[in-house]
Write a structure and sequence with these properties.
elongated, single chain, mainly alpha, about 5% strand, 4 strands
């Protein structure tokens, strides 16, 4: 098998059900989802399994789900022979994990800057690239048929990355970097149960 095919030399690429220009919204949406997946892989390499095996396992699961989402985005339409892979349960799972991580991290009162530890910084990159993917999928949904679960998933996934970036810093004993000009904006923030 060759890695290059020369079929994209004219600025077009194959999707399930046809060919599109490489700057088509659909192609940009699944390409950006793939970009998120790459940063997730980078984050995994920065996490010590002795401290973060639970998060590593979740991130590997997410990598597979992102691949499923990309596959769904690359389909011009769902058919009986090729049903969408991303289902509502992956959204529900993220919501459950976010709720647990919010309990683990310190109370949040102010905006924070991306950073702290290297892994947390990478997870913030994951968060912002996921938001970009979400914007492209939003545009795609206005233009063409696509799996609506993917948009919900990306929305929750960016929140998940924010939550685990804070947990990573917390477990490492690294404080989040507060935005110094921020007022207290999370007045109804989580309160630790005593």
């Amino acid at each position: 098998m060759r890695l290059y095919t020369r079929t994209g030399d004219e600025g077009k690429t194959s999707v399930v059900g046809g060919r599109l220009t490489k700057d088509d919204t659909r192609v940009v949406a699944y390409g950006t989802t793939d970009e998120v997946n790459c940063f997730v892989g980078q984050a995994i390499t920065q996490l010590d399994p002795e401290v973060f095996q639970d998060i590593i396992n979740e991130l590997v699961k997410i990598q597979h789900e992102l691949f499923d989402c990309g596959g769904d985005l690359a389909m011009l339409k769902e058919t009986e022979q090729r049903p969408f892979k991303a289902k509502q349960e992956i959204v529900t799972y993220l919501e459950e994990r976010i709720d647990e991580y919010i309990k683990e991290a310190p109370e949040l009162e102010r905006f924070i800057l991306p950073g702290g530890s290297p892994a947390a910084a990478t997870l913030h990159v994951c968060r912002t690239v996921t938001r970009r993917a979400e914007r492209y999928v939003t545009r795609l949904q206005r233009e063409a048929e696509t799996n609506p679960v993917v948009l919900k998933y990306l929305n929750r996934l960016s929140d998940y990355f924010f939550a685990i970036a804070r947990v990573v810093n917390h477990r490492l004993g690294v404080k989040d970097v507060e935005y110094e000009r921020s007022a207290i904006v999370f007045r109804e923030g989580k309160r630790k149960e005593k």
